[in-house]
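User: Hi! I'm a student and our assignment asks us to look at how structure tokens line up with a sequence. Could you show me two examples?

Assistant: Happy to help. In each example below, the sequence comes first and the structure tokens follow. Example one:
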Amino acid sequence: MTLDLPPMLVEEAVRAALAEDLGRAGDVTTQATIPASAQARAAIVARESGIVAGLPVARAAFALLDRQIVFEAQARDGARVESGTRIALVSGSARAILAAERVALNFLGRLSGVATLTARYVGAVAGASARICDTRKTTPLLRALEKYAVRCGGGVNHRFGLDDAVLIKDNHVAVAGGVVPALRAAKANVGHLVKIEIEVDTLEQLREVLDEGADAVLLDNMTLDDLRSAVALIDGRIICEASGGVTLSSVAEIAKTGVDLISVGALTHSAPVLDVGLDIEIN
């Protein structure tokens, strides 16, 4: 899987974070204590084991304060590291390094945490055909970065926004007047390249979907028995996704039912931050 982040998205997010942290007067502590000419070398170190994600974002935090700073990655995004591993080396203006430190570490820790939790879910379903995917339950304005971190952890991305594809949820079905009216309306109003997925809560609704036709179906909060029955009914005709209350303790059994995808909101809304730190190296 290709791991890439559009530089424009990275710079936009990092600029906003730096502006938030530096405020109106900049880093007054560093300016008061560190000479403008001072140089420093530092290591970014993992304080616990996990999956690295966000190195391009951390690099940008330093570069936006001083383009002369040298950022040397010692790992790659998507790699597993152990506690004590050097993730990157940073050298150059001491003032810039200290001023960018927290923004760089916040992004790196947050994204590595998402990647690490994703990898745990992916590992839990190893041997099954189901893939682990994310949702739109992301931190506002950081969706592209967090979904990138999911890919670093071995997961796959669901839609990025409301304009990606049609996903008819239970509230759409309620307002539209049922599964069939909702599907027919969607087919009549979107282009031929737009995929249509619909959420169902019961096997009866699933039968309606299969009769009417869709590209994918989301099996929401179904029991394991119902998921197995749903997979048998679908029989490979459309993509099936299990969702709703998925945990690390339940995901393996869900995967064994034969679903194609398991979407997990917790990947982005509940991932613990991976502990990373920056240590100045004193000669």
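Example two works the same way, sequence first and then tokens:
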Amino acid sequence: MTYCLGVKLKDGLLAIADTRITSGTDTTSAKKLFVHQGEHGSLFLMTSGLRSVRDKALTYFKEVLQEEGSGYHKLYEAVNAFGKQLRRVSEEDKVALNASGLSFNLHTIVGGQLRGDEEPKMFLLYPEGNWIELTNTSPFMIIGNSGYGKPILNRTVRYESSIREVLKAGFLSFDSTRVSANDVDFPLDVVVYYNNTFSIIEHRFEKKDMEKISSSWDSELKRALDNIPEDWMNVVFDNQKVIN
């Protein structure tokens, strides 16, 4: 499993991805974010699913970018190109994977801006190679382990939110997932893209970098719980007194 978050905001794009790789009882660390920058623009992609499928599709895609990348004017064209390579890998490996009891299940978030795009774009690409685009009304998506971290994003993230604000919420979403699931962990890769800059900012956070923030979040949650009014609970406990 994995945790990858992509967000489209009024000021640009934000993406974060964990690096935990789980295979049976073995755990390792590997980068799940790929960044490509050139004269024609910048894009990034991150994946959730079988590592072998990801590596093969990405290798094919890198070759396509070297040969044809400068010919792409809009991001959806690059997304279609990756989808084509994903279908190529499916044709080559899907039968063998299914025979081994494995499913062809790679999901991909692609974001960025090419010279022909009026604004940054972000897409969710399915294993079949088809895709959907993020909109202003649904500004974020998670691939991988989404159940633990999504509630805080639902409560805090809006299209009009600042990138700095959403990076905080995104980290807390990741951290909530990390402490609840053993298949998500540091290091944490972060990508920031501001509108019309055609340049991606990339940074990696290690666990030691964020321990203070995680501890502070734990304390704030406990404090918030303690401060919630309790008078609404009296009816429950008054009934218990009657029973006694």
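Here is something you could point out in your write-up. Helices lie at 51-68, 75-99, 150-156, 163-180, 207-227, 234-243.
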